[in-house]
């Protein structure tokens, strides 16, 4: 008898969901219920419950799901891409693939809000910032943006709010910028009331005033020109200048900073990140001195810990949306951390000489291609270029592109007369020979033609820091990656109980297809026929997401939750405009809402009106009715999160939706907490008109240290005509859509197979069981901890949804021990802290997720109860208020072995408190970090090694 493979026969949901049946029985018994269903019935209002099971395929085993994915992958025809336009072939060094991209120590980490346990990622991101800063010639770069198109849009808004000299409302975009970049900028500008002027700036600026100018360097058509005359003219007219540029090109070309540019943006994709059919890729932005405190996104800075040792942290955190809300500098919440880390390690791996050698080879290939075309009688439009050759072939451009495709080469059809050919790291003589044959000429690698003129040839140094000049052997690189990952705490070490962030299992089988060449090596502007596997995967995933949310249509284009929010609000805005109600611009937002809601509303051209909350955390219905009545003629929407931001199923949600609808508004249901609804209730059925979903939360795409994320937008039938679309691919969205939200037609398509595999393997019953388990674990934790830390908000029957808020404020008032002290002390116990001070200052929000088993839940609860006992010892006077294990936490190994131990508690109490496994102790690399020092002394690139001596 043949025994079946366990991955073939086992139900995947049993692997994903942590608590075993016997553990479930003990947990529900603790809560006083007969079974999980009884608990869920008591917690979830009957008024929102779905009456029918989810209509999804029967769950597939892990092996069968991978077989199906192999079938989809096989339908993608991967050719040699020479399309360019911001997307290029690149070789990811194997050591980076194996030890970083496919390593859960890197991809399951959370955003580095707890810097003491994130030093590895933060160092890698500081490397990234240094790469961008050095190559662009501008002093301060951020820790990545979502892609090049949205980075350009952020540059526009930065220029608008920072240019105090200009009263203009116009933004000039050079016509030779990438088409997708122009379109994304136009989408953003329209909502903000800014006027985008697209013009050829080859011979100077057009007439009129502009607050900013965007130029591509090298241009979309490949041309490289001296930026300085344009920059000088723009500055003379009172405009700021943003340069969209290419990091690899900048190893050979004069930097934007040297030309006087104010801002540089672009994509780091060609630094070792696969094409991924458009994403995820790490965009970047760098700015001149004076603009650094207006940078959107995240910024890693150097500070120091309490011992004075250098330590990294996120700098200028007061710019974050959860604090500034509608006054935030942008609605960006996630970065593209994992991809930025890959790009930074690509630079560490190759070093400045290696990068210059790659760039030189790329340019020489383009140069010899141009010379061969010219020798065969083909007109080459530009004399000066880096990697892209623009050939003029009157009337036969389509034939040339088709000829090349028949030989396995994708070229860019510019128009009927022009073909674009971009060389990259993967280009070789064979490919160039096929390109030439497509034109009807012969390739001769010995021919050369153009050279980069002196005025654009770089002479300045870059990447001189030792980190980029040390790790030349694979042994050294391997150990550097291991050292950094050992600094960090990720899900492969233990539970990350962050409320609102859903740090659940990212199963290995779900991750497996990401690096398959058939998915990783496809250009986003490849012929749609060559992407048949992706098209089907995306279609299936969008259909499944529509089913589980109760909406009519889904677009997966938004490449972050914040972008999904923006897409949903733009759909609402366009819907009102189509009805002749363009003056509806008021967005109601509960006081407890996530900060990106308010920021996104402003980005969508709406005015935020805050709705009060009750003492129990619910929406104040009286205030809602009053505000809806007050703004009835201008009410566009309300943005609510369900379950609420406080982790409670609000009984009044249907009344909230009805009230807004009665006053002419639309209901936006933030999908941040969808992990508490799947299989139980559908936002599209209990009153929602639109929701964004977080695939990097509910649907198992890992957080990757803060990115990648995917934020699909789901809409009811009447909003479907206003979903995102794309100028370069009609299949990406409706013709009547709002324009592109992301640079690529399908956003971060490269990680969609993760969520596809999750849904495919879980099926309807599995997804529903996961939701029930999430509700069970949250209520179990709340019950166990209620005697030590009271739960702030509960719903009917004293129950929470999938997360709970622990109220530390009374304890702080009594003892002086703060939420920060508890969070840092948890590090000594071997845990990442819950979410701190959101949505209520002085509290901890805990979300255990469905993936943690009872042993890990109890370990966390035991640690929290032990910390409560430590606090009691401070109250009792056993430990001084200013010298105890909490206020001094976390404790490093070097601190514990210090000869001058003079604390009121023992070394053992510091490092090995109750329940800590001595054989698996996590040691933080630094002690508590002084954030204020880092903000006062802003250092955002690699410090010299002597700082660490």
TrEMBL record:
It holds the Pfam family GcvP2_C. Residues 14-437, 445-724 form the Glycine cleavage system P-protein N-terminal domain. It is an enzyme of class 1 (oxidoreductase). The modification N6-(pyridoxal phosphate)lysine is found at residue 697. Residues 770-891 form the Glycine dehydrogenase C-terminal domain. SUPFAM superfamilies: PLP-dependent transferases. CDD domains: GDC-P. Its EC number is 1.4.4.2. It comes from the Bacteria. Its cofactor is pyridoxal 5'-phosphate. GO terms for molecular function: glycine dehydrogenase (decarboxylating) activity. It catalyses: N(6)-[(R)-lipoyl]-L-lysyl-[glycine-cleavage complex H protein] + glycine + H(+) = N(6)-[(R)-S(8)-aminomethyldihydrolipoyl]-L-lysyl-[glycine-cleavage complex H protein] + CO2. Keywords: Coiled coil, Oxidoreductase, Pyridoxal phosphate. The keyword Coiled coil applies. The keyword Mitochondrion does not apply. Residues 614-641 form a coiled coil. The glycine cleavage system catalyzes the degradation of glycine. The P protein binds the alpha-amino group of glycine through its pyridoxal phosphate cofactor; CO(2) is released and the remaining methylamine moiety is then transferred to the lipoamide cofactor of the H protein. PANTHER family: GLYCINE DEHYDROGENASE (DECARBOXYLATING), MITOCHONDRIAL (PTHR11773:SF1), GLYCINE DEHYDROGENASE, DECARBOXYLATING (PTHR11773). The glycine cleavage system is composed of four proteins: P, T, L and H. Belongs to the GcvP family. This is Glycine dehydrogenase (decarboxylating).
């Amino acid at each position: 008898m043949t025994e079946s493979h366990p991955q073939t026969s086992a139900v995947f949901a049993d692997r994903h969901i942590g608590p075993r049946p016997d553990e479930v029985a003990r947990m529900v018994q603790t809560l006083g219920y007969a079974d999980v269903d009884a608990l869920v019935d008591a917690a979830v209002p009957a008024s929102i419950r779905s009456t029918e099971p989810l209509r999804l395929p029967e769950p597939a085993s892990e092996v069968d799901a991978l077989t199906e994915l192999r079938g989809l992958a096989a339908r993608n025809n991967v050719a040699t891409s020479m399309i360019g336009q911001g997307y290029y072939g690149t070789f990811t060094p194997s050591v980076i693939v194996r030890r970083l991209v496919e390593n859960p120590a890197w991809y399951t980490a959370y955003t580095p809000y707890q810097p003491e346990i994130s030093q590895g990622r933060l160092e890698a991101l500081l490397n990234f910032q240094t790469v961008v800063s050095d190559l662009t010639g501008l002093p301060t770069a951020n820790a990545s943006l979502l892609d090049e198109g949205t980075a350009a849009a952020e540059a526009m808004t930065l220029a608008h709010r920072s240019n105090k000299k200009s009263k203009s409302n116009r933004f000039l975009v050079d016509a030779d910028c990438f088409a997708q970049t122009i379109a994304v900028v136009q989408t953003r500008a329209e909502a903000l009331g800014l006027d985008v002027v697209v013009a050829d700036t080859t011979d100077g600026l057009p007439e009129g005033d502009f607050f900013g100018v965007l130029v591509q360097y090298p241009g979309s058509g490949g041309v490289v020109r001296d930026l300085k005359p344009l920059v000088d003219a723009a500055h003379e007219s009172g405009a700021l200048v943003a340069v969209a540029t290419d990091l690899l090109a900048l190893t050979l070309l004069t930097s934007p900073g040297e030309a006087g540019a104010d801002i540089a943006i672009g994509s780091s994709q060609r630094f070792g990140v696969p094409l991924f059919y458009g994403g995820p890729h790490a965009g970047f932005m760098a700015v001149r001195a004076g603009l650094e405190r207006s940078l959107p996104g995240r910024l890693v800075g150097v500070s120091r810990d309490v011992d004075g040792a250098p330590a990294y942290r996120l700098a200028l955190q007061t710019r974050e949306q959860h604090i500034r809300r509608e006054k935030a500098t942008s609605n960006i919440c996630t970065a593209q951390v994992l991809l930025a880390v890959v790009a930074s390690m690509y630079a560490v791996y190759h070093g400045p000489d290696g990068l210059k050698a790659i760039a030189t080879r790329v340019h020489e290939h383009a140069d010899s291609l141009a010379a061969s075309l010219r020798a065969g009688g083909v007109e080459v439009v530009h004399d000066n270029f880096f990697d892209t050759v623009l050939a003029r072939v009157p009337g036969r451009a389509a034939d040339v592109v088709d000829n090349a495709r028949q030989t396995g080469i994708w070229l860019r059809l510019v128009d009927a007369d022009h073909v674009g050919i971009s060389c990259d790291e993967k280009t070789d003589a064979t490919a160039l020979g096929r390109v030439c044959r497509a034109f009807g000429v012969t390739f001769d690698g010995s021919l050369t033609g153009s050279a980069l003129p002196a005025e654009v040839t770089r002479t300045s140094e870059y990447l001189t820091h030792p980190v980029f000049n040390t790790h030349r052997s694979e042994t050294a690189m391997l150990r550097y990656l291991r050292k950094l990952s050992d600094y960090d705490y990720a899900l492969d070490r233990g539970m990350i109980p962050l409320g609102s962030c859903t740090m659940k299992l990212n199963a290995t089988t779900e991750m497996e297809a990401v690096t398959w060449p058939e998915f990783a090596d496809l250009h986003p502007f490849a012929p749609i026929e060559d992407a048949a596997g992706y098209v089907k995967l995306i279609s299936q995933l969008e259909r499944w997401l529509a089913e589980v949310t109760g909406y009519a249509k889904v677009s997966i284009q938004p490449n972050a939750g914040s972008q999904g929010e923006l897409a949903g609000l733009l759909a609402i805005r366009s819907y009102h405009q189509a009805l002749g109600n363009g003056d509806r611009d008021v967005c109601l937002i509960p006081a407890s809402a996530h900060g990106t809601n308010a920021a996104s509303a402003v980005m969508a051209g709406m005015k935020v009106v805050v709705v009060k909350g009750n003492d129990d955390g619910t929406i104040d219905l009286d205030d809602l009715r009053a505000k809806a009545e007050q703004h009835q003629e201008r009410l566009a929407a309300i943005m609510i999160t369900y379950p609420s931001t406080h982790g409670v199923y609000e009984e009044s949600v249907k009344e909230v939706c009805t009230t807004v609808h009665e006053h002419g508004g639309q209901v936006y249901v933030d999908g941040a907490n969808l992990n508490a609804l799947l299989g139980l209730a559908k936002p599209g059925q209990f009153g929602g008109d639109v929701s964004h979903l977080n695939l990097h939360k509910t649907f198992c795409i890992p957080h990757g240290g803060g990115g990648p994320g995917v934020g699909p937008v789901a809409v009811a039938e009447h909003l479907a005509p206003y979903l995102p679309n794309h100028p370069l691919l009609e299949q990406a969205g409706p013709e009547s859509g709002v324009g592109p939200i992301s640079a690529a037609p399908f956003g971060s398509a490269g990680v969609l197979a993760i969520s596809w595999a999750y849904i495919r393997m879980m099926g309807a019953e599995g997804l529903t069981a996961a939701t029930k388990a999430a509700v069970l674990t949250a209520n179990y934790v709340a019950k166990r901890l209620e005697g030590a830390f009271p739960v702030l908000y509960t719903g009917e029957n004293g129950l929470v949804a999938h997360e709970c808020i622990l109220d530390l404020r009374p304890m702080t008032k009594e003892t002086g021990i703060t939420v920060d002290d508890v969070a840092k002390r948890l590090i000594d116990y071997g845990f990442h802290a819950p979410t701190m001070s959101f949505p209520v200052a002085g509290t901890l929000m805990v979300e255990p997720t469905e993936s943690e088993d009872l042993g890990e839940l109890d370990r966390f609860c035991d640690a929290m109860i032990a910390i409560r006992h430590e606090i009691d010892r401070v109250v009792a006077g056993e430990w001084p208020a200013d010298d105890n294990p909490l206020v001094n936490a976390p404790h490093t190994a070097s601190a514990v072995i210090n000869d001058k131990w003079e604390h009121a508690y023992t070394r053992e109490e510091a490092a090995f408190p109750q329940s800590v496994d001595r054989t698996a102790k996590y040691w933080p690399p630094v002690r508590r970090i002084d954030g204020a020092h880092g903000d006062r002394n802003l250092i955002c690139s690699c410090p010299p090694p002597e700082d660490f001596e």
